[in-house]
What we know:
Layout: E1 4-7, E2 17-19, E3 22-23, H1 34-50, E4 51-52, E5 56-57, H2 60-81, E6 86-89
Amino acid sequence: MGYSVRLVPDYGQRWPLWFDGDILDSISDAPLSEHLKQQIVAWADTFIAGYHEETGWADPEVGAQFRKDGELLREEILHELGDGSTVSFDDWM
């Protein structure tokens, strides 16, 4: 049986993954490689630093790259979790 995962950035949330409807209490609880966990946190930090709730991305190019990186992360997460898992991605755009 696989996981149902959502990759969704949010304000003040350095860990943007929801597993089976719940956000994990700790990054260490995620069944992912340490390298991928670090990439996910760095990606979330980009959102926290560059996206404003009312005005969007301060730099549209950063926003476009953020979306591309999110799609790549979604694919990597799905690859690591394996068969039977689903990973959705919402980038607030």
